[in-house]
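Notes on consecutive records. When two proteins share a document, each keeps its own sequence and its own token line. Never mix them. Below: protein one.
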Amino acid sequence: MSSRVRHNPRRSGLILMEVILALSLFVVAGAVATSAMNSSLDAVRRLRMRTQAADLAVTKLSELLIDLRVGAAVLEDEGPEPFEDELLAEWTWQIDVEKVEDEVDSSRPVLMQLKVTIAHTDQSIGYRIVQWVPAEPWMSRRSR
């Protein structure tokens, strides 16, 4: 007793269509997941670079304020200059100094705005930090 299985060509055609549809959905889902992963990795890389730019700006401003405190800094615009460290060769720094003069005696500044700008040479990533400092302690120390 052998039983014969009838082979229905319509049924096998539907199974083939289901398999093709499932594979195409799987490929589309994989492409979407890969695109989302690449976008996420790019966002993390840019965030890491922005954070590094902020750290470099704070460090450069701190160096400038320490140099002012000990009287070793000249208060004038500088840069853009590359960093000396080889690991930071893709970054540049710039210092802008703006002096706000006294309304009564315009020969001596009252405040100074120190603006430190950090920029990446390849990417459009940068950071700027501004610090207002009283000019008198720095200026009187220089005149001695």
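Protein two starts on the next line and is unrelated to protein one.
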Amino acid sequence: MSDATSNGSVTRFSSTQIVERPKRRRFSIEEKSRLLREADACASGMVGAFLRREGIYSSQLYAWRRERDRGDLAAGSVGKRTAARATQRADTQRIVELEREIRKLKRRNERLELFEETRKKAAGLLGLEFKSPEIDEND
């Protein structure tokens, strides 16, 4: 256990104290746009101080500038990106469903082919005339 002073009193903390994990910062489009405007307005050599003051990394600023240049920081772009992701997820889910159905139909087809082979062999052993369903279409 360790001691800590708080308001003149001694508080004891156990050595197994659970510390909450810090949450990742999320920046809205407005915040990103504001920070980009301020960074662009900074004098040469002052961007580093700006980044330290705001608590962001130069890589974030670089990525946001790329987003801005692509038009991803525009007002309507969030809905487009979200819709695109939703469509992609739906497409991926549909592909998975179709692949599952293909596997199921392949297994069913294999069983039917095995049954057809067995039926042909049995007809041959019993001396029965065997007509395949393809030839028997006119009957």
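For the record: The two ends are 92 Å apart (CA to CA).
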